[in-house]
Amino acid sequence: MKYLHRFVAVLVIASFALGVAGCNKDKALKTVRQADELAAKLLIYGRNIAKANNESFDKGNIPASVHLATNTAVDHYLKGLDVFIAGIATAKKAIEAGENSQGQIDILQAVFDAQVAAAATALVNIVTTLPPEVADKIQGWVAAIQLAILSFRALFAEVRINLKAEVTHA
Amino acid sequence: MPNDPIAGVIDHVRLLIEALVNGRVEARTIKDMTDEQLGDYIARLQQEARDEVEAGYRRHEPPPENP
Fold this sequence. Notes:
The complex is a heterodimer.
Chain A (H helix, E strand, L loop, with lengths): L1 H57 L5 H33 L4 H27 L4 H4 L3 H31 L1
Helix pairs in contact in A: 1-2, 1-3, 1-5, 2-3, 3-5
Chain B lengths: L4 H23 L7 H24 L9
């Protein structure tokens, strides 16, 4: 009887641990989906800025130096996003395969900070290098990119807190 | 450059603001996509963005010499 109780206790603990692991996995996969959505938004902005920059240059609004500098900044920004999007796909596969969700989210955030955030900031700096009389008119655009970066950081922070809370409760 | 450089810069800013507004409208459709649709959409966006940047670089290439 004593052994049966122990066996049941082990089963209860194991099922609870597996339940928490499943929950962590679901949350991490939800984060991966949100990261994909935000990456798509950042891609839309990048593509549209590149297009607007080309159009503006064709109309003679900006000199070649400004056009080339902006185009190069968008190029770096897109290359950073490419690395980040590849990182999302890798994280998704790893989480689905049962690897440590927290670790994957940490890696994803590190990739985002190293590859995307810096390039986005550089792009914003290039575009805001305009005559002061018009610089304030593009604040909305600058704010949108900055908001997207903050959204990413908030998303990662929230998931990290949730995952840690679950591990603590377990 | 246009005759009025300030008008040119204002037009440039207008184009950037349009890029932002259109981007926001387009971004609203993302939420309803399935994971597969979103994957395809991201791949398409990457290609479109890359094409725009390459087109931008081509504007700075020297014109081909006449034979």
